[in-house]
């Protein structure tokens, strides 16, 4: 949608359940946790996997969420013209701060339906 001029590249939205949804603000704790997690993962993740912090995943026509972190098979140059699919993901780490009324069911269902192997 950015390439088509529908959205500019500074709007913080993601495609969720067929709708554009405003993304939550990343707090300093979130950024620090993510940096530390990436550093630890680099120590143990075998060659052939790439970390994708904040990268969208193509989980079908209705879901293209920006995830907190994904371990993606291959390197960053392996899919320059598309977002990785669930079948290319080995691990998703999502940072959620849901209210007690928010269920995680729709999130889990979207990842599973998009081919992410396990949560």
From TrEMBL:
Keywords, ordered alphabetically: Plasmid
Protein name: Uncharacterized protein
């Amino acid at each position: 949608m950015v390439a088509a001029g529908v959205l500019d590249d500074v709007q913080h939205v993601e495609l969720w359940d067929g709708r554009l949804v405003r993304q939550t603000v990343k707090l300093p704790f979130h950024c620090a946790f993510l940096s530390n997690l990436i550093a630890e993962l680099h120590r143990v993740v075998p060659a052939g996997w790439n970390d994708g912090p904040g990268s969208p995943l193509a989980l079908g026509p209705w879901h293209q969420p920006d995830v907190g972190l994904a371990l993606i098979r291959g390197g960053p140059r392996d899919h320059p013209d598309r977002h990785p699919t669930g079948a290319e993901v080995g691990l998703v780490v999502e940072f959620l701060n849901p209210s007690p009324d928010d269920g995680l069911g729709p999130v889990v269902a979207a990842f599973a339906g998009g081919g992410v192997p396990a949560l």
